[in-house]
Amino acid sequence: MTVGPFMADDPDLQLRGQLVRRLGLFREMLPGSFVEHKRTCRRPNCHCADRKSLHIQYQISVLIDGKPKTIHIPEALVDELREKIRLHQRFEAAAAGICKINLRRFLKEREKS
Ligand SMILES: [Zn+2]
To answer: Smallest Cα–Cα separation from 25: which of 71, 105, 74, 90?
Structure first.
């Protein structure tokens, strides 16, 4: 790979640098997807008996050793875990951005030779 004097002006490299520096923000990321289930508890005196103000059950669907698992999440952890899963999605987007830049650069180099 050749590194010329104009590297700092290369918008691809600037963008890649930004993306790489951002990767540290994703250290708390978690895989999986967040699922909300609404349900009744079937107790006749509960507020959910009207079938409108239902209980919400929070779960994470995730692959563990290649097998899909569902993990129940207490309400107190919902915001935190939702955010950590969102971090993973942003990480994937950043990684895809870096790959795209590197592929574009690789193909450009290949044209020259
Ligand atoms: Zn209920």
So the answer is: 90
Residues 30, 83: Cα–Cα separation, whole Å: 9
Q: How far, in Å, is the centroid of ligand 1 from the Cα of 49?
A: 6
Between CA 109 and CA 30 the distance in angstroms is 36
Dump pLDDT digits (tens) for 7-47: 568 899 999 999 999 999 999 999 999 999 999 999 999 99
Consecutive H or E run containing 112: helix 78-112
Backbone phi, then psi, for 6, in 5-degree steps? -95, 10
User: How many angstroms separate the alpha carbon of residue 44 from the centre of ligand 1?
Assistant: 8
Each domain of the chain, given as residue ranges in start order, spans 32-112
Distance from residue 47's CA to the centre of ligand 1 (Å):
6
**How many whole angstroms from 38 Cα to the centroid of ligand 1?**
10
79 alpha carbon – ligand 1 mean position (Å): 22
